[in-house]
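Model: Ready when you are.
Researcher: Fold this.
Model:
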Amino acid sequence: MGDDQSEVVGKWRVQFRKWVWEYTFGVDGSVSWRDPLNDQNGAGRWTKTGKLINLAWMRSSTVESWNPPGKQADKRTGWVSASYGSGPLTAQRVAASPRNSTIPGMSPEIAKIPWDPGYVDMFLECTYDVNYKIPPDKSFAFSSILQVKYSDGAAIELDIEKDFSPQEMTASAARDAMVHGTLGRGRRIFPAALTYRTTPRLWAARMEAHRVQNEAFKEFANISFIGVCFALSVPAMPAGAMAEEAVAATAVKRRSLPATKVPPAPIQGNMVRLGPGNEPGSLWAYIQTTGREVIYRVEMIVLEGNGPAVATARATHREMIKRSAQAAQAAGQRQFKMLGIQANPNFVRHADQLAREIGVAGSGAPGTATVGYPNYEVILLVSKALGLP
């Protein structure tokens, strides 16, 4: 690891109240403790977050944070929270590791790179956008890409389906996977496998992306859905020390960002014909203008599912509604109709929801059916329809 980590790598004498321990910080993010009076010992992980050094111990609820060094680099203060008490601690370095030290199996190239932000899990921000880089060979899919940024300006992309491994690992196996890592994308240190133990923060972001996908799927029947994009903030976690259940329970914060916009399909002559008509992503519709009213006639529409075809159909459906409102406005009218031909129950629910959101609630009216489902129309308001994204 790089020179900026030499401030803690080595052996320290740590005192908290009446207790005194010896801590040994490794260049791979490992840390161990030993009580010199009884030789009891334990292990954990350390991470540098901002200016703080955060420690977490295996099979222990004890957590510690060390403050930045003062005028004397070999003396530190900090705070410990443990079952036996909480309060300030002091630390004195008693032996520094050689500046060029490595550990068995670690590549010299990796040893020169600062663990923070060099290690792939030490990211600054992670973004997930359901519409980002959907594979062209998949008709219906969410994005599988996490966009990851680091404090040194590096940025990489990770595939939540392909780049991660569900394999089980012990804490020691995770440590080995990290030590025997390689230099990968963005000059980040990648462990032998991206798992919940080697990259707990990225694993938590991956699980959050899956939750976003599930929520987005439920919104696809809603005209207001235009895609979601979140910046995911994941707290510092000790790699190698946590169980999958603990990682899964980690509170990941979301901050909304502008989503990737899907443009509508080309519309000519106020008419559109997308898809075969009976599959997701289909939209057969046109705008009819009479002397008395404007009618948005929907002959076929299937918006269930996900993927670029459905996203395009949704964007085009919204654009057709807006164009109908513009046509009604040009004619001096304050409202227009959306008419579904042989409307099935899904369309009826969708039309009624639109009427509640941008039209006259309760205006839905079925026509007379001779074969199949009856037609169904609702009244939409020009002013509200023009406000659609």
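Researcher: Now this one.
Model:
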Amino acid sequence: MRTVKVKKTELIDELTANKAKHEKNVSLALTGYKADVVKKLEKKIEAVKNGKLITQVYFDIPENHAKDYDRALKQLDMSVDNEIELTDQEFQQYVMDEWGWKQQFLSSNSGYIATASLGL
């Protein structure tokens, strides 16, 4: 199937729910990120106090793609149609929540999300 027509209200509901899940994951990732940064920097500070030289420390800042959801929701909000025709790719993104960036998002943020979930 190359395209499918969906009810605009149902599509808005799906996108809104998917955005809420995304934002929850981003929030968890940010919590884990902050805990990880503090923990690693405290170790580096302690090493410096003990006379050791340290290398640079890098942190991957959690990705946030809420603007992708916002853009799609705004387009739907401005559409005068009650039914929206979606391509297979659009359906995959908007309904199935399988965006092109999704795997990278999960892999780069999963450690931070786990840290936050475990309260470390």
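Researcher: Key takeaway?
Model: Residues 73 and 88 are 18 Å apart (CA to CA).
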